[in-house]
Amino acid sequence: MAWRFALMIDPAASDDARTDFDATFTEVDPSAPALTVGELSTQRGDGIFESIGVVDGHAQEVTAHLERLAHSARLCDLPAPHLPQWRAAVGRAAAHAGAGESVIKLILSRGVEHGPTPTAWVTVADAGDFTAARTDGIRVVTLDRGYRLDTPAQAPWLLLGAKTLSYAVNMAAIREAKRRGADDAVFTTSDGYVLEAPTASLILRRGDRFTTPAPNAGILHGTTQLSLFEHLEAQGHEVGYDTIPASDLATADAAWLVSSVRLAAPVTAVDGAPLPVDRDLTAAMNAYLLSPRD
Ligand code: PLP
């Protein structure tokens, strides 16, 4: 991955009335070490993050990403991020993104062990090439996430609705999917409902209705899914949040995994059984997702 830019942030208190945050930013060499060995993000994955898609220098859906960062911070008992400060940092980062597709990452960690403040930083890197996933599609397998649909409400300390830095399990699920001859995974609950993919939201189409699993604390509320649902609704389609039995995935008229950087990847097979792909609709979705969105 080509890292283009990195900015360390001295996090402002949420009631800080400043409007100019330049003094709180320190540009660092993105290819040089920048964290201390006591960092809790690296020792424990104790922190939260966001990945924002950038197209030709325009950072997409910044408000939705900042709102989810604040939501994750609340769930993790981290100090509330000062959103105008983070927005200013995103602006600084986007200016270094260049032409084509890039990704801005926002990271807020609990900080250094026994230290006084969180550690925060922003990076910009070139995005990968997702043309094949967007046009030819991806094969998925369903993988049991090992908890029931009602577990998140009963065990909020599992932080299931927060975008935490602890993604080792998500990455392990993608490796398992590849071992099974697929490209990606769709998590299911132990009582048989679909949830999300390790790094994407799931959208199904049945007739003219688009549906996605309700973000009831067990999954992230995807910014791409939200944006796409608004667009589909404006185009006259019906959209909705449902509790979706796992068996509905293989019988859907079409399905996609959607996320900020890969965008809409049509699902071509579920557990080895083929699923129809609507190439024109997928191309229209990706054209919308690549257009400047706020
Ligand atoms: N669900 C999970 C677990 C994710 O990691 C992601 C994105 O990385 C998403 C859903 C999709 O979120 P977004 O559309 O905001 O990228």
Offer a concise description of the structure:
The protein has 294 residues and is α+β, with helices and mostly antiparallel strands. It contains nine helices and 14 strands. The mean pLDDT is 97.
Explained architecture:
Pfam families: Aminotran_4. One of its GO terms (molecular function) is lyase activity. This is 4-amino-4-deoxychorismate lyase. Keywords: Lyase. Belongs to the class-IV pyridoxal-phosphate-dependent aminotransferase family. This protein has 294 residues and is an alpha+beta fold. It has 2 domains: 3-126, D-amino Acid Aminotransferase, Chain A, domain 1; 131-290, D-amino Acid Aminotransferase, subunit A, domain 2 (D-amino Acid Aminotransferase, Chain A, domain 2, Alpha-Beta Barrel). It contains 9 helices and 14 strands. The protein has helices spanning 40-44, 62-75, 83-94, 131-135, 151-154, 168-179, 223-234, 247-250, 279-290, and strands at residues 3-9, 25-28, 47-55, 58-59, 101-109, 119-126, 138-144, 184-188, 201-206, 209-213, 238-242, 254-259, 263-270, 273-274. Strands 7, 8, 9, 10, 11, 12, 13 and 14 form an 8-stranded mixed β-sheet that branches. Helix 7 (223-234) links the parallel strand 10 (209-213) and strand 11. Helix 2 crosses helix 3. The two termini are 26 Å apart. The protein binds pyridoxal-5'-phosphate. Pyridoxal-5'-phosphate (PLP) is lined by residues 51, 196, 198-201, 220, 222-225, 258-260.
